[in-house]
Amino acid sequence: MEHVPTLFFLLSTLFLAVSVVSPPPPLFPDEALPTKSGYLPVKPAPGSSMFYTFYEAQNLTTSLADTPLLVWLQGGPGCSSMIGNFYELGPWRVVSRPNQLEPNPGAWNRLFGLLFIDNPIGVGFSIAASKQDIPRNQRQVAEHLYAALVEFIEQNPGFENRPVYITGESYAGKYVPSIGYYILKEKPNGKVNLKGLAIGNGLTDPVTQVQTHAVNVYYSGLVNAKQRQEIEKAQEISVTLVKSLKWREAADARTEVLTLLGNMTGFATLYNTARAIPYRTDLVVDLLNQRETKLVLGVNETMRFEDCSDLVEDVLRGDVMKSVKFMVEYAVERTKVLLYQGMLDLRDGVVSTEEWIKTMDWSGLEMFLTAERRVWKEGDGGIAGYVQRWGNLSHVAVFGAGHFVPTDKDVNSRDMIEGWVLETGLFGGEDIRQTIPSRFVESS
Ligand SMILES: *[C@@H]1O[C@H](CO)[C@@H](O)[C@H](O)[C@H]1NC(C)=O
Ligand SMILES: *[C@@H]1O[C@H](CO)[C@@H](O)[C@H](O)[C@H]1NC(C)=O
Ligand SMILES: *[C@@H]1O[C@H](CO)[C@@H](O)[C@H](O)[C@H]1NC(C)=O
Ligand SMILES: *[C@@H]1O[C@H](CO)[C@@H](O)[C@H](O)[C@H]1NC(C)=O
Which listed residue (307, 345, 348, 408) is catalytic? Predict the structure, then answer.
């Protein structure tokens, strides 16, 4: 019996020795590494550069030159596209456990290249040479983004003619139209072969949108008539401040509306009424502040990653309430546009977008508004959402999702973006009109 503890001691020493020499499993298995990542100099702001991660299409069904390239822009203003990469639509995400990447069954790079850019400079791992270089308006945002995109295309042989789709969420409801408008209007023969714009739960026409909260929550049964009036009053303050061109104050007043909404409804987050806790962007912060992460992504070890930059948010505060609806109107005559919203979002949800669509100055508007809203089904017959389209405009309401549509409905969101880009399924075939009022019949 005496020799047993000795053997045990020997064995455990051996184990100890083995565990000391073998390194911990890597945070990033090889298959989780981006195809490329690093910095794109932003020429209009010397010394500044945008950080990016790029994932090539997992399945190149066409030649590289024809394989679409999706660009993803996060909102904020001031939030990092690494949230999109590692928590929403990228091929590997941290969604449940800290510092543990899991493959995403609905990654958007199945058929398309996927480029995440930390925009504008000063956001995420992007570098702003000085505070003065950080954009204060959408024109500057577009100029910087365009410079970065051209740089990316030039750095990669074979990318010259790839069809480019600019996508993004939330405050990217400003960025996506502004880079689209800039390319279509000023660089139509330039290096970016733009083929479409897609916005998820966007802020695009803020004055119209801020006025939708009261009716939206009232008719959802979330507030009573008295509370509805209180919200309407708060909304009106923001609108009045816009009319007197007090842009920053108007943005603050909009924040007040959202705070009021949060207080009245008691939700853990206005971004998704079904969630018991806010979205876990803290998991992305943890991951990106690991030494190993910075090493594999090509980021200076001394940089600290924040999910959203207060500085950039502050610099762009005067831009928040400014509309870019006219840019969408310009774009939809020249390229296709997708507006999609997760239905559980109380900040930038379906009603909020539909209200400004109705006010678009666009020749196709009447046809769009009377087009059939079709039920979009999942493989097993469940409801995935609703799709309405006419000409170059598509609208999708995503069932069971909040503000972060790809987080909440990964596979459905991937099916949506693939269908829209490739014009298949509900995005293929003839435009569909509903049984339509006689005034439209007469004119056709
Ligand atoms: C690649 O795409 C083709 C055509 O869509 C499909 O048949 C094939 O199963 C895909 N392969 C993988 C590994 O996804
Ligand atoms: C929301 O609730 C907090 C905490 O009770 C309070 O300090 C704040 O004034 C309220 N804000 C609004 C706009 O109602
Ligand atoms: C990283 O940043 C620090 C501080 O700005 C700088 O001193 C250092 O040279 C940088 N390292 C590299 C490899 O660029
Ligand atoms: C729709 O977009 C295409 C480019 O995809 C453009 O050629 C066409 O003129 C647009 N159609 C309309 C009716 O605006």
Answer: 345
The residue whose C-alpha atom lies closest to atom 4 belonging to ligand 4 is 335
| 3 among known catalytic residues | no
Interatomic CA distance for residues 357 and 353, integer angstroms: 6
- Using only C-alpha atoms, the chain has a radius of gyration, in whole angstroms, of 24
Digit-coded pLDDT (tens) for 375-422: 999 988 899 999 999 999 999 999 999 999 999 999 999 999 999 999
- The reply to whether ligand 2 has any atom less than 6 angstroms from the CB of 234 is no
Tokens of 43: 């020429």
- Return the number of other C-beta atoms located less than 10 Å from residue 12's C-beta: 10
Domain spanning 35-205+278-427: CATH superfamily: Alpha/Beta hydrolase fold, catalytic domain (3.40.50.1820)
Residue ranges of the domains in the chain? Answer: 35-205+278-427, 208-265
* Cα–Cα distance, 354 to 22 (Å, whole number): 56
260 lines ligand 2 (CB under 6 A): yes
7 C-alpha to center of ligand 1: Å?
54
Ligand 4, atom 6, lies closest to the CA of 334
Q: What is the pLDDT of residues 276-329, one digit of tens each?
A: 999 999 999 999 999 999 999 999 999 999 999 999 999 999 999 999 999 999
pTM of the full structure: 0.91
Q: Which atom of ligand 4 is nearest to the CA of 333?
A: 14
